[in-house]
Amino acid sequence: MKNGISRKFYLELTPPTEKDNRSDQRRLLDAIEANMNRSVYGISENSEAPEKSSRQESRDRFHRARINIPLHILRALHPFCEKAGWKMTASLAWDGSCWQVAALEAGDTSDAHYGLAVDLGSTTVVMQLVDCESGKVAAQESAYNRQIAFGEDILTRIFYSKDQPEHLEEIRRATVETIAALMEKLEERTGIPLRTSSGALKTNAAKGDRDGNRMGRCISMVVAGNTTMTHFLLGMDAFCVFSTPYAVQADQPGFLKGTELGIPIPGYVFCYPGKANYLGGDIISGMVATDIYRKDTISLFFDVGTNGELVVGNREFLLCGAGAAGPALEGGVVRTGMRAANGAVQHVRLAETAGNAEETMDGDGPEPVRITVKEGVTEKQYRVVTDVIGGGRAEGICGSGIIDLISELFLHGILDLRGKLMPEKSDAVVWCDTVPDEKDGDGEYAFQYAPGLFFYQSDIREFIRTKAAAYTMMEYLLSETGMSLDDVGDFYMAGAFGSHVDVTSAVNIGMYPDVDPARIHAAGNTSLEGARKLLLDRRIVKELPEILDLMTYVQFGAVEDFLEKMTAASALPHTDLERYPSVKQRLARYVSEL
Amino acid sequence: MKNGISRKFYLELTPPTEKDNRSDQRRLLDAIEANMNRSVYGISENSEAPEKSSRQESRDRFHRARINIPLHILRALHPFCEKAGWKMTASLAWDGSCWQVAALEAGDTSDAHYGLAVDLGSTTVVMQLVDCESGKVAAQESAYNRQIAFGEDILTRIFYSKDQPEHLEEIRRATVETIAALMEKLEERTGIPLRTSSGALKTNAAKGDRDGNRMGRCISMVVAGNTTMTHFLLGMDAFCVFSTPYAVQADQPGFLKGTELGIPIPGYVFCYPGKANYLGGDIISGMVATDIYRKDTISLFFDVGTNGELVVGNREFLLCGAGAAGPALEGGVVRTGMRAANGAVQHVRLAETAGNAEETMDGDGPEPVRITVKEGVTEKQYRVVTDVIGGGRAEGICGSGIIDLISELFLHGILDLRGKLMPEKSDAVVWCDTVPDEKDGDGEYAFQYAPGLFFYQSDIREFIRTKAAAYTMMEYLLSETGMSLDDVGDFYMAGAFGSHVDVTSAVNIGMYPDVDPARIHAAGNTSLEGARKLLLDRRIVKELPEILDLMTYVQFGAVEDFLEKMTAASALPHTDLERYPSVKQRLARYVSEL
Q1: CA A180, CA A176: separation in Å to the nearest integer?
Q2: Using an 8 Å Cβ cutoff, are B33 and B7 in contact?
Q3: What is the pLDDT of residues B340-398, one digit of tens each?
Q4: What is the complex's ipTM, to 2 decimals?
Q5: How many CB pairs under 8 A join A and B?
Q6: What pTM did the predictor assign?
Q7: How many CB atoms are closer than 10 A to CB B546?
Q8: 3-state DSSP call for residue B426?
Q9: Whole-number Cα distances in Å, A500 to A340, A513, A523, B558
Q10: What is the rounded distance in angstroms from the CA atom of residue B104 to the CA atom of residue B124?
């Protein structure tokens, strides 16, 4: 991919003669330039530029991107070139201004040219191995962020390292080790050597061989992470991210040498810039992934993770904000909640059964919970059908399962529009008076969604707060632009949550707006996708300042009527049911008294 | 000087507030950009850019040179900025593509902004401390190159380090130590702290104070040296410079980090590029010093040092070559020769005395040698008047003294046109039969130019070989261009030799061509001067590839009739006396038989 942030060329140099005694440096640069031109302009040229270039060519050279050979490679040219028989592969890394010769290897390794895209999440780090010649993803791995050793949540880590350079260094190293470990996992998966040992960086070319040195096939890396993650990766105190006036230390680190960060690649690590303390590189990367900053139509981007980040706009403006929208959705607050891993209930529906008749079991799973629901004057029998990740016994429930569950309970009247469990509506709503951690010991109602697994009234309360915050953020940003939901062409729901959630369920509970489901897109891991795109197209780097300038960040905490609006959104789906015509229809279908 | 390779700005940043919570990084960059614009465009602006820049401004930012804050400075911004009260001085260093923030200091040190220009000679290293705000030279120092410990002559050093990385490292370190020692000398002379300790580079900003750290007032450096010197400075084996096919390792090192080279500056070291093995950065620097590549008229540039380098041309072409022209001129071959230091005879003339009458002594010096010269049929009495550097007793003779001496001996007929001493012409020509180092013990004629100091026939022979080589190089390059001496507008004689030599004497002996003396310019240390110019004007960097492309290098060894031409030039002043009409006149005046 000729526009990527790394290039790799196999070069057959002509050995020096008395007639052509250009320096090794010039010989190498000429050959790289000729290859660069051929690939950029499609010019058919020899492997090397003509011996003597005209003045015009010399001027051209300066209008094109400069190619630089750093000192450690310059020093190694002799006797490397001779020992390699003047046949070598040059790895080039873009540093933001020019091409740096990052590595030289004897022979032809140009077909093995990879780069890494990284979504640096505070909980999970995802890494894609990208074939930089074809642009295809060769493999993907993810792992828990080793920072977790210093705190499950981000704030604990921030306090751990605040004004403690040694602790900060521990966290920085944990971050880098997570990245290196993911590279190792990808190596094991693909059999491709990816890591370059720092020894190899200095001596590989000098020794002219690879014995004892490790030269990987990866050149450069793009990292998208929130502001705190970027601070930790760079070894910077992140207390500024969470403390007023929210002026962070660095938000545009740009291209940094892999060796400088301790990441085993010979090229550069590009870190996506951030817009504000709570609107980091992962979201800017999402803008690039979804292209909404290039479109005429208005888009709404919503990344639901531990935090919720929202952007509304098009090529003319991007209004954005962030708020605590996530924990409940990731199962962090819900008592039987869990991450979307094996054993997690990811989808729920109530399936009507014909009275007491025996039913065929779904697969080998355990028998589902059977419940009775009063609908109007009649009683109906339902099975609580659960879709468990991995197919085994349910061990808890994840975000998309919760949305389905609340949606089903609401549609069947087991939850009222204030989000209260109605024990009179179903035998499945039971009083739990021995709830651990409940101080007053009063207990609360709960709904058994799988054998032995309950969803509590307090879980619902927490969850509704989250969905209300999410909805209010959307509503507020749109109202700020003087637009309504109808003006939005596309809704991009990013993140794992956005990918797995059932759109109709999310609309039913008023988390998503009630629009044509075709306009709501599960955008996936846009942080990772934006990183991959930039890895293959360095022109995006030049667009980033424009994206940042398009963006206006709203601190929701500073919005006066935010809480009031949020209260209105705390009903299911909303106090103003007219906003949810499709839900109103569905409710009418299920609940006869409406 | 706004076009220099370093800048220094005093910045008063506004502390972050909730309304203006730009990152520390952005705050610093905005302030630097505003200062840069003000100084470049003369725009009256506040110390900082407006809080929110328009898209146009953002695009502009990318069309202007990029400003980068490297990782170690980014990491130090917190708590440096706060501790400095947001008032700081930023040092910026040009890296060839963009501005790098090289250092941050609390308070205002912007008026102390220096750079270093270095002529890296194989024998002597000269360093100029340049005030980068005024462009003026603040001080200059020189020292012997510490490489001399590994060999008086350059070839010994090359063989010492060939294929011996440890020896090469010794030489590299000696080079760097010479440079650091010169910085120390300049510090002592001026009282200005110039060296920045590498600790300071990493921690000064971080600690927010200068205690225990040393932050110098120099940012960047420009070095001009021949190809071998540049190789040694960079730690590269220089055997390639002297061995066929003369393809050197690196000839365009460009900007290198001071820390990477071990030179105690926070910015970059620019090394002038070379054209060929024997035509290095010192000569390209000379092109910049004399501007001959910008002129319409033809110029001839001749740098007489240990080696002699020659360039003929103008803005359309530059023909160049190099040859062994120097040792004799630096006093290295002549038996009583010495460098142009205290005690060296730098000028000689024969002053006629009135018979045996007592003469007034010139100053306090010892009485000069008195000689009798037969001119035609008469005998005349002369004093050998010598101008001794430092004014004391003569201890030897340097290049310019030799030229005068040979010229005087020739004009007075004591030397014939083949360069033979004529004992029958003067009582001052004596036979020395106990000459040390003379194998056959036959002895040779010599001329006593100062009490106890003789100039030998073999010295003259050696010297004439040198001047013949020099003249033939000029002649050959001119003939290659189809031009004659009359087509040359200006002659630039560079180097210490060119500065001190008497032009008429040099013409008399046929070392310089017989042209109007007003056209012959003593250009001084053009290597140093070109370094100083580039330090103050980075636009020159962009012109260097054009200069290199204009140049065509002629290997004199490969020229067929070179030796034949040199033989013709081995007479005094030349076998073809018609080329030297003014000398012919002068001879007629002195020597009646002509």
Answers
A1: 6
A2: no
A3: 889 999 999 999 886 554 444 455 556 788 999 988 788 899 999 999 999 889 999 98
A4: 0.88
A5: 146
A6: 0.89
A7: 15
A8: strand
A9: 9, 17, 10, 77
A10: 34
